[in-house]
Amino acid sequence: PELHAIILSIRKEELAHLHHAEEQLTAPGPLVHLLRSTIAVATDCLIWLSTWGDSVKMARALKAAKLRGTSI
């Protein structure tokens, strides 16, 4: 329950940031589209980079546990 509450809190904050940013972009057009696309790609890359190490460690631990016949 605590983790769920934390995740919901983070989601709420990020949605507030998104809505604020959308309100600031008043001039629709190709430059706005390019900016949004660039930010989306950069954000996805940064999220992937920030979690890649943990994901690799978790995958290795799961594989090792499976080979030992144990669970994590």
Task: Report a brief summary of the structure.
With 72 residues, the chain is mostly helical. Helices cover 86% and strands 0% of the residues.
Describe the structure.
- By secondary structure, the protein is mainly alpha-helical.
- The protein is built from two helices and no strands.
- The chain has helices spanning 2-24, 30-68.
- The protein is elongated.
- The relative contact order is 0.05.
- The mean pLDDT is 85.
Query: What is the average per-residue confidence, as pLDDT, rounded to a whole number?
Result: 85
Protein structure class: mainly alpha
Report the β-strand fraction as a percent range: under 5%
Cα(first) to Cα(last) distance is 21 Å
Helix content: over 70%
- Count of structural domains: 1
Low-pLDDT residue spans: none
Order of helices and strands: HH
| Largest β sheet strand count, sense and barrel closure | none
Number of strands: 0
**Silhouette:** elongated
What is the number of helices? Answer: 2
Rg from alpha-carbon coordinates: 19 Å
SSE layout and pairing:
Blueprint: H1 2-24, H2 30-68
Which key terms come to mind for this protein?
mainly alpha; 72 residues; single chain; 86% helix
